Amino acid sequence: MQAVRQCAQCASRAAGGFLRNPSDIPMLQxxxxxxxxxxxxxxxxxxxxILFKKPGVQKLEEPTDSVHMxxxxxxxxxxxxxxxxxxxxxxxxxxxxxxxxxxxxSSTFLSQTTLALLDALTDYxxxxxxxxxxxxxxxxxxxxxxxxxEESLLRLINVQRSEASERLNDCKRFESxxxxxxxxxxxxxxxxxxxxxxxxAVTLRTNIQVAQTQVEEARKLSADADKKLAETKVEExxxxxxxxxxxxxxxxxxxxxxxxxxx
Length: 263
Known about the structure:
Blueprint: H1 2-17, H2 25-30, H3 32-47, H4 65-87, H5 91-140, H6 147-194, H7 198-262
Helix pairs in contact: 1-3, 5-6, 5-7, 6-7
């Protein structure tokens, strides 16, 4: 192939490279060896049917095996996703996708309701503990405070009692929503399992167990706060009874002293 290219260059020089102008004829006569070599190259190219081929009607070479392979691979790039897309439109596949969407949305609903319920239970426990602290402070200082200080302390106790009541209402409201989310997740997990989404079903059931564990721990804290509040109420009743008895005794003592002075 390289020899043919060299002959083509020599032929082009011999055919037109030295005869561009009439003044080039003497130079061509002085270069007989170049002319002979050019003529030989022209014969070679003529025998190979290369020099006198028309540029517009040159026959294309047949594609090689590598070209066929590249074309087939190029077709495969676009054909494979199309086949995969057609196969993914089956009813089973669409049902699995829908079940996956349901499990994802149910899991999100569960996480949000769990977080809301945990915050409500924690806030309720804090409000109850603050109320217990204020009530015990009042009982410890019973009969020792001025009327203004006693009224201010009782006002704080009432405010904290209202706060605990509001937090308890939040707990009841969020707990109802949380129970609905748990039931919804159970149904979604069952639907995913029956439709072939075993992994999604297992993940959702695990999330349900984690949420239930967290809620149980928060419920224990709120229950412990309620237990301490009940104990404080019993203590308050006993302390108020003792204080009332002490007031009666002091009134009788004052009456007795006044009676003796009159005598």
